[in-house]
User: Fold this.
Amino acid sequence: MGEIRRYRDLIVWQTAMDLAKQVYVLSKNFPANERFGLTQQLRRSIVSGPSNIAEGSGRGTTGDYVRFLHIARGSLFEARTQLDLAEQLGFTTETDLQRILPLCNEIERMLNALITKLTH
Assistant:
């Protein structure tokens, strides 16, 4: 598991970081009165993905690592829901989301593959 612990080399971590940057830029345009509401919640959940990938890689066991990868995947689903809500509330557009959602799907596939690799 030594090579996998190098989380910065993982494409899934790199892609999750890219997604986080894109969501931060997108959420800058949310209404000011959402600064401590949806904006903050979305940013926390999107940062949780790469953070949990990194934290899990630093844990001592494969079981812990897999648990943190599951948490990262859950945070991704949480962020997807918040992005959907932002669109429904008119804080962002479908066009903006179409640039971000493929990254969400790609990260989900990579997390699933890594979880499978570590558990089989």
The chain has a mean pLDDT of 93. The domain at 7-119 is CATH 1.20.1440.60 (de novo design (two linked rop proteins)). The chain has one domain: 7-119.
